[in-house]
Amino acid sequence: QLQLVESGGGLVQPGGSLRLSCAGSGVTLDNYAIGWFRQAPGKEREGVACISASDGSAFYADSVKGRFTISRDNGKNTVYLQMDSLKTEDTAVYYCAADLYYRRSLGSGYRCYSILFSAGSWGQGTQVTVSS
Hints:
The structure is a single chain. This protein is mainly beta. The protein is built from one helix and eleven strands. The chain has one helix at residues 109-119, and strands at 3-7, 10-12, 18-25, 34-39, 46-51, 58-60, 68-73, 78-83, 92-98, 121-122, 126-130. Strands 2, 4, 5, 6, 9, 10 and 11 form a seven-stranded mixed β-sheet that branches. It has a four-stranded antiparallel β-sheet with strand order 1-3-8-7, with no helix packed on it. The radius of gyration is 14 Å and the shape is globular.
């Protein structure tokens, strides 16, 4: 049974960096698309980044493009979200989610977020606070 555990959140000043980890157990994460989502107080959950399993493509929300990087470490069965140049508006609980379909072709970030949001397997979240 797939389980995901996020870690790496914390308090950071604007302009700083954090690296979030999404550690998997029960399945090999390299075979499944993985997405990072976030939810700020009073706002809807939104997709931030997604990495495909079929071809390794990465997709990013416009709000984080150029600042966040999603990557895999297959040896550790972990997916990372490197967050640089953090802004106060990045403050949220961050979640990772895994597709339940083996090596599904995605084609776009929107498709990835839609699939994972409705039918993915989720972790418990990690808090990221960007504040001076």
